[in-house]
Amino acid sequence: MAALSIRERPLLICLAFVQFTNVMDFMIMMPLSPIFTKEFGITPTEFGLLVASYNLSAGIVSLLSAFFIDRFDRRKVMLFAYSFFIVGTIACGFSTTYGMLLFARVFTGMFGGVLSAILLSVVGDVVPMERRASAIGLVMTGFSAAAVLGIPIGSFIATHFSWHVPFFAIAIMATATFTGIVILIPKMTAHIEEAKKRDVFRAFGEIFFNSNRLRGLLLMVLLMFGHFSIIPYIPQYMVHNVGISEAQVSLIYLVGGLCSVFVLRIVGKLSDRFGSFKVYTALSLLALFPIFAITNMPKEGLAMVLFISSFIFIFGGSRSVPANAMITATAEPHQRGGFLSLNAATQQLAAGLASFFGGLMISGGPTEPVVNYHHVGWMAACASLLAIPVAYFVRPVRKQTVPVNEIKIQEEMLI
To answer: Among 54, 89, 99, which residue's Cα sits nearest to residue 62?
Structure first.
């Protein structure tokens, strides 16, 4: 198992910051759910739509871009998408009604989904297969950092000042990260010539008539239903059913995120060493315990809540590292941007539908206990188990990286 090179790390760290702001923008909604349900007077189902709107919008735009994105420099696509992502985040901060916030979430999601695909495309083009899971693990520490630093701080600011402020803070951080992209991310055009040889319909066929890639997409759907059906409703359930305070909700993400910071890197290295499928299977089986525990939890003290919820991050969230390594490996470089845009579309749509269906299965008013949350736990558990045999049949293609001379050019630009 080869270690990441010193030239790869600056690029991957920059991508981790992009991931941090992108995930932060999405996840900040979850600990703020008690605030939104009170301020706007909405039900859990309406809040589920507020969360799902981002995913559904991201999924639709990623789907539309899937068959054209490989015809462009990945750096330019990232800069374009990130610019409008910042604009959308600022719009969220200026929203004053449920309708305005819903519209702003849709707009922001349009570009957040494209960012998710471009991140993995860059990793897949530059980092060889034998250390790709480690690279994805490093990039996805942005997810954990969003939980460790951003979400608790954002939740604290929203609770003590205003829920508008965290969105403005994300926009400021994203603007600084934009500068990092300009400086650190090189032009990536080696895939374009081959991509332009294929028309849209051929690209469509290469994805939708390839059973291996379809299995990769199905794996992503099941992964999202096994995780995001329960995640958006944890704060509401913990406050109204388990009995912790709104101010303590941020501790769930702080403790869980701290665990993830260490676990994601370890999971990436284990996946490179023992195989992504074996690690994914182990994590999926272990994730069943916190899924059932957290969706059936009676009134408990804060210590027990933090103990159980942290394993949702450790076992549930870290599954995405080996899963993305397997999925990324099903496409060749000239197809990767389009396929991973489609994968991002699948991920966002599945996460949105999982959140929405989870909201339909539960009930309860803005200040009432959440009912039937354990049904959502059963849905997540079944999806997690079904994903294991699907993952077994996901196979990598032979060609995994851009030409060697292109990688050398990119490395020279990073020196």
So the answer is: 54
What DSSP string runs through 309-339? HHHIIIIIGGGHHHHHHHHHTTS-HHHHHHH
Q: What is the pTM of this model?
A: 0.68
Q: In the beta sheet, which residues pair with residue 363?
A: 371
What backbone phi and psi angles, to 5 degrees, belong to 217? -65, -40
Helix (H, G, I), strand (E, B) or coil at 11: helix
| Per-residue pLDDT band at 164 (split at 50, 70, 90) | confident
Q: For position 55, what pLDDT does the model report?
A: 76
**Bridge partners (DSSP) listed for residue 371:** 363
pLDDT greater than 70 at residue 174: yes
Radius of gyration over alpha carbons of the chain, in Å? 20
153, β-bridge pairs? none
Find the angle CA(331)-CA(139)-CA(225) to the nearest 5 degrees: 65
In Å, what is the CA distance from 406 to each residue of 17, 186, 189, 403, 413? 24, 11, 9, 5, 11
394-401 average pLDDT score:
68
- Do the Cβ atoms of 233 and 373 come closer than 8 Å? yes
Residue 366, CA distances (Å) to 151, 247, 297, 369 in order: 21, 17, 20, 9
Q: What's the pLDDT score for residue 45? A: 73
d(CA 135, CA 36): 36
What is the average pLDDT across 187-211?
Answer: 64
What pLDDT is recorded for position 218?
A: 92
* CA–CA distance, 280 with 267 (Å, rounded to integer): 9
Report the helix count and the strand count for the chain, using DSSP H and E.
20, 0
φ and ψ of 363, to 5 deg: -150, 170
As to burial, measured by CB atoms within 10 angstroms (0-12 exposed, 13-18 middle, 19+ buried), residue 271 is buried
- Write the CA distances from 112 to 33, 154, 303, 347, 408, integer angstroms: 21, 19, 35, 12, 30
Tallying the residues shown for the chain, one arrives at 415
Distant-in-sequence, close-in-space partners of 341: CB < 8 Å, separation ≥ 6: 62, 63, 65, 66, 69, 113, 114, 117
Query: At which residue do the structure tokens 């995994």 appear?
Result: 400
3-class DSSP state for residue 161? coil
